[in-house]
Each structure stands twice: as C-alpha cells, then as structure tokens.
C-alpha cells in the first residue's frame, strides 16, 4: 500500500491512465452488448440450429461407431468368425456412408438445377419474394441512384449537334421531331429528291417538275426569277435565305445545330406554301 502511494505521489498521471483504461474497457463491453442486442431473432435461431445440428450429428456418430469399434477390437483377440462379422459390419457402414453421400450429392445437383431455372433478370412481385432487409436495401439504393442522377446530370437542356435526342423540355412549339433524327439525312433527302427523281412534291396533289435536271438551289432560283413580280419582299427574302441556308448545311461539312435545323424547316415550309399558292 505504501508502495502504491509512493508511486502515485511520484507520478500522478498513473491514476489517470488507470481510469482511462477502465473507461475504455467499459465502452468496449457496452458496444459488445449493443451488438448482441441487435442480433435479430431469425439469425439467432439459425445459429442455434446450426450448433445443435453439429452436436446431435457428433453424438449420433459416436453412438453408431461404438459397436463396429468393439467388434474390430474383439476380432484381434478371438476366432475368425467374429472377424468375418466385423468385415460385414464395416462393409455395411461403408455402404451406408456411400449411399448417404450419393443422396446428398443428388440433392445438391437438383437444387442447383432448380436455381438455374430462375431467370437472371428476376423481378420480385410480392413481399414473399425477398426478405425485408433486401427490400430496404434495394429501396435505399434506388433513392441514392436517383439523387446521384440529379446531382451529376446537366443543369439545363443540351442540344447535340447533328442529331436530335429527345429530352425533358426539348419539344419545340414549332416542330415535333422524332427521336434520334439525323439532321443531315433530312437536308440531303430534300436535295436528292430533285436531283435524282427530277421533281419535288409540294403537297399530296401538287409537285414541281423542272424541264431539265437541276439541283434544289437551281430549282428555287429559277422559281425566284419567274415569280419576282408576283411575290412580296418577305417571300423573296425567304426564298433567298432558304437557298443560302441549304447550301451552308449541305456543303459546309460542319454538324447541323438544332437551331439551324429548325430554321431550315421553317424556311422550307414557307417556300413550299409560296410555291403552292403561285402555281
């Protein structure tokens, strides 16, 4: 006692170290008790079942092996008749173990075959298909993915040059475009209709068929020269703008933007109406 008092008087920090160690131990025990409390009844039942299964299996194996072991020991001390009986018993035990192993193997193979019948893309449709922890985990992951998609996604609408891809809020009041539409294909088709078919259809019943083969630019400019006196300044300007924009989109080699394509469709629609009204 005097020694301890002397040590504490020499080094007062020893008491603080001892108190800290006791607090740490108590904290660890508290965490251990909380983990034990968090063990779910199903997990506890499964653990007890596994332990009891191996205990019963061990006791049964010891009881069943008592007679064969006894006969084997006696066979070394008695006549050959007991030795023959020993061999018979050992053979029966070996046959039983082999049969049990075969039955267990067949059971495993059948279970795996049934599991393979379940489709890989499995969608649970009822509460009995998956457990509650799995359902909660899936729900949490879906919420997390939704939050990530909103955070990592673009803040505004993105228009891709060269192709229209439908997004939320990208529909225009002027035009309704199909999804994944390639702008260059539409512009080329209008020009190739005049170049290879030799005519251009304005509506269901009316079309323009030039006397000589020409391009779309030449066709529009010819109509422009013929109808200069009949059209107003707005219509003439529209035809000029349409030809200029068509040449730019067709031969510039640059991807067509969404704004340029919508402007081209508006100008082409106005030119068609002008040609239909004047023909």
Automatic annotation (TrEMBL):
- Bilayer-crossing residues are 44-69, 81-106
Keyword Transmembrane helix listed: yes
Q: Which InterPro entries match?
A: DLT1
Q: Which UniProt keywords apply?
A: Membrane, Transmembrane, Transmembrane helix
Record localization: Membrane
Q: Name one GO cellular component term.
A: membrane
Membrane topology is: Multi-pass membrane protein
Keyword Cell inner membrane recorded: no
Question: To which protein family does this belong?
Answer: Belongs to the DLT1 family.
Q: What does this protein do?
A: Required for growth under high-pressure and low-temperature conditions.
Q: What is the name listed in the Swiss-Prot or TrEMBL entry for this protein? A: Defect at low temperature protein 1
Source organism: Dekkera bruxellensis
